[in-house]
């Protein structure tokens, strides 16, 4: 199981203990115990008809969320909700902690150092089996943007990767699925380091990617590429899941609802105002150019706002998709057993469509 958890940590490389956004830093203390909170300070609190100036000030609930990488278009709705004041309107004093290599958002949320996290659907199931009771409260990506990139025209079927180098993270769940489903038993697995230099140098190589990012990098370098989207290859999992713990959800359902609704409002805003919010995110991640952000925002649009989100709204999750993913993880031995899937996710806090 050690290599599996290594995969979880690699996939969960999100968040840090350094505060990046918000009016004041998160203390890591549950919101209900924060000195700034009281029973009258819930997100739904409202002033009386004729309040005094002091009484009309609604106290905000301090919370923080951990994203799964440095600020980028995949987080656009979260930053939109922060910069446009949607979290504040919902009664939340929000801090966004950006992720980075080797940082586990699941551990940060499980320890109470952040109330909310962002990760992949398989991470939620793996964490739960490991005794970390996370609950998904929204799925930003209907189709996960993870994929396998190759040089243009080289492959028509993923099974043709046999006999060639593939740069991929060790123990990554989707790769274990693809190997079994497509009999990739002759692939030369190479350690993925984040660098694309070896891929570029070898016209027969392939590499793991986010379809919202690396293809743009290759375009800038004049390298023609194509890719397989893992979701379309049968590994159907949601991406950029927003989650919290069972305990926090049970004790603070009003805060969870305020967080989810404000986040979804942010994503609906980002769809038509990505250029504005990309500039906000670039202040936090200056290494990512606006041109790359524009590419990512366009590439991810059908993955976020398409599929079930068209009828049910951004963030919606299907029991069928969750059960299918769980069964795949059990079949390839990554999960030992299938728990009742209803415990792993809920649509209860999504805004009414």
From TrEMBL:
SUPFAM superfamilies: Periplasmic binding protein-like II (SSF53850). One of its GO terms (biological process) is thiamine biosynthetic process. Residues 14-58 are annotated as: Disordered. InterPro entries: NMT1/THI5 (IPR027939), SsuA/THI5 (IPR015168). Residues 73-276 form the SsuA/THI5-like domain. Residues 30-56 have a biased composition (Low complexity). PANTHER family: 4-AMINO-5-HYDROXYMETHYL-2-METHYLPYRIMIDINE PHOSPHATE SYNTHASE THI11-RELATED, THIAMINE BIOSYNTHESIS PROTEIN HI_0357-RELATED. This is ABC transporter substrate-binding protein. The lineage of its organism: Bacteria, Bacillati, Bacillota, Bacilli, Bacillales.
């Amino acid at each position: 199981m050690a290599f599996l958890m290594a995969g979880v940590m690699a996939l969960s490389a999100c968040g840090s203990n350094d505060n990046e956004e918000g009016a004041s830093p998160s203390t890591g203390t549950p919101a209900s115990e924060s000195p700034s909170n009281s029973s009258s300070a819930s997100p739904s609190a409202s002033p009386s008809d004729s309040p005094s100036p002091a009484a009309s000030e609604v106290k905000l609930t301090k919370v923080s969320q951990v994203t799964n990488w440095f600020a980028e278009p995949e987080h656009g709705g979260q930053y939109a909700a922060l910069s446009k004041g949607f979290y504040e309107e919902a009664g939340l004093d929000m801090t966004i902690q950006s992720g980075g290599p080797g940082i586990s958002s699941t551990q940060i949320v499980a320890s109470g150092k952040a109330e909310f996290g962002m990760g992949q659907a398989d991470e939620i199931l793996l964490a739960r089996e490991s005794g970390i009771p996370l609950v998904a409260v929204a799925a930003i990506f209907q189709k996960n943007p993870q994929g396998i990139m190759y040089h243009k025209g080289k492959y028509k079927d993923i099974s043709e990767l046999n006999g060639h180098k593939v740069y991929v993270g060790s123990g990554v769940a989707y790769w274990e699925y693809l190997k079994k489903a497509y009999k990739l038993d002759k692939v030369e697995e190479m350690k993925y380091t984040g660098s694309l230099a070896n891929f570029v140098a070898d016209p027969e190589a392939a590499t793991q990617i986010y379809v919202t990012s690396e293809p743009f990098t290759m375009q800038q370098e004049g390298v023609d590429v194509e890719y397989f989207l893992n979701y379309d290859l049968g590994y159907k999992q949601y991406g950029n899941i927003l989650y919290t713990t069972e305990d926090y959800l049970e004790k603070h359902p009003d805060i969870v609802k305020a967080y989810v609704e404000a986040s979804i409002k942010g994503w609906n805003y980002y769809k038509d105002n990505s250029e504005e919010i990309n500039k906000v995110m670039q202040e936090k991640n200056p290494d990512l150019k606006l041109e790359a952000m524009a590419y990512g925002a366009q590439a991810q649009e059908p993955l976020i706002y398409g599929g079930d989100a068209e009828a049910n709204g951004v963030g919606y999750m299907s029991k069928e998709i969750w059960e299918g993913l769980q069964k795949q993880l059990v079949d390839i031995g990554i999960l030992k057993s299938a728990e009742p899937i209803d415990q792993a996710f809920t649509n209860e806090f999504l805004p009414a469509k």
